[in-house]
Amino acid sequence: MIVVTGAAGHVGANLVPALLAQGRPVRVLVHADRRAFQELDVEVIQGDIRDPESLVNAFNNAEVVYHLAACVSIAQYDWPLLEAVNVAGTRNVVEACRRCGVRRLVHFSTIHSIARSTGEGTVDELESLVESRRYPAYDRSKAAAEREVRRGIEEGLDAVIISPTGIIGPKDYKPSHFGDALLRLANGRLPSLVGGGFDWVDVRDVVRGALRAEEIAPAGAKYILSGHWVSLREVAGMIARITGIPAPGFVCPLWLASIGAPFITAFDRLAGRRPLYTSVSLQALRDNREISHQKATEELDYHPRPFEETLIDTLRWFEQNGQLARPLKISLAGSS
C-alpha cells in the first residue's frame, strides 16, 4: 500500500496515476479537493496532516508514504499557517510513519528551502538550509520541515528528500502559482512582465525522479530535481508563438518592480486576483541560474526534458480543459 498526502495538488495529480500504472495499490489522504483522482481506482481517506490521528489512520499497513501536502505562499505574512501545515504537519507525518512502521518516506521539499545566494555560483545538495528571517516565510517553513525529516532519519526512519525547482506541466487543476502565470500569459491577461527568470521543471520528470528515488536511493539521500533556467521574457515569447496572442510589450526592471510590489499585491487582492508579483516572487526571480541536478542524473538516471516540450504540453492540457480563450496556434516544432 502506497499512501500519498497532498494527492489533490499538481504533483499528486501526476504521481498517483504513475503509481497505479505500476500496479500498486494507492491510498490518498484527502482534505478537500478531489478532482485530481475522482475517476481513479484509489482508496480515499479523509484527513488532515495537522491531525496526528487521521495520519495514523491513513498510514495503517502502508509500505511507502509520499508526503506532498504543504501550504505554498508567496506572501510575507503567512507564517502561522505555514508553521502549522508545513512544519508541524511534517512532524506529524514523520511520527505517524514511525508509529505505523512505514518502510520508506519520500518527502517533497523545494529548492526554496536551500540558502541560495543571489548572483553567480552553482546550487547543489551540499548547500545549507535557510534559517535567517531575511528569507521568505515559505522558504523557512520548508527548511524547518526538512529538519523534521532529518530528525526522523536520525531516530531510525528510512526517508529520502526530493527538492524540485519551479514545477509546471499537465494536470494542474487548481492551478498552481506557475500555472496561473502561464494561463494569464496565454489568455492575454498579464499586462506587463518583469526581469529575471526561474528554473522550470516538468512535473512528470519530478514524478519519475521521485519514483526512482523511492526504489533505489539510500536512506537519508536528498536530490535536487531541476530543469532549465528560462527568463520570463523568453517564456512569454514562446507562449505568444504557440497561442498567437502577443506577449506583453513592457518588461519592468526587477529593482523598479520591487518598489511597486506592495502596491501591485494590494491592487490584485482588491480585484479578487491571486497576486503574482509580490516581494517574495520577485526575490525568487533574482536567484541563481545554475541549479545542479548532477547527483540525480548520476544516481537516479534523471534527465529533464526540453522546456519547450513541457510548455506545449502544459498549454495543451489547459486548452483541453477549457481554460484558454482560443485554440493553440502552433507548436514550437512547427506542427499545427
Largest sheet: 7 strands, parallel
As a percent range, the share of strand residues is 15-25%
Q: H/E element string?
A: EHEEHEHEEHEEHEEHEEHEHHEHH
- Computed structural class: alpha/beta
Q: Please give the count of helices.
A: 11
What CATH calls the topology of the domain at 2-177 and 199-229 and 290-305 is: Rossmann fold
Radius of gyration: 19 Å
The neighbouring-strand order within the major sheet is 3-2-1-4-5-7-11
The count of strands amounts to: 14
How far apart, in Å, are the first and last alpha carbons? 43 Å
Instruction: Give the overall shape, derived from the CA principal axes.
Output: globular
Tell me the quaternary state: single chain
Question: What is the level 1 CATH name of the domain at 2-177 and 199-229 and 290-305?
Answer: Alpha Beta
Task: Give the key terms.
11 helices, 336 residues, alpha/beta, 3-stranded mixed β-sheet, 16% strand
Q: Explain this structure to me?
A:
The chain is α/β, with parallel strands linked by helices. It has a domain at 2-177 and 199-229 and 290-305: 3-Layer(aba) Sandwich (Rossmann fold). Helices cover 42% and strands 16% of the residues. The chain contains 11 helices and 14 strands. It has helices spanning 10-21, 52-59, 79-100, 137-154, 177-186, 203-216, 232-243, 254-270, 279-284, 294-300, 307-320; strands spanning 2-5, 26-30, 43-46, 64-67, 104-108, 122-123, 159-164, 166-168, 193-194, 197-202, 222-225, 228-231, 251-252, 290-291. The strands form 4 sheets. The protein has a 7-stranded parallel β-sheet, with helices on both faces. The longest helix has 22 residues, at 79-100. It is globular, with a radius of gyration of 19 Å. The model has no long low-confidence stretch (mean pLDDT 91).
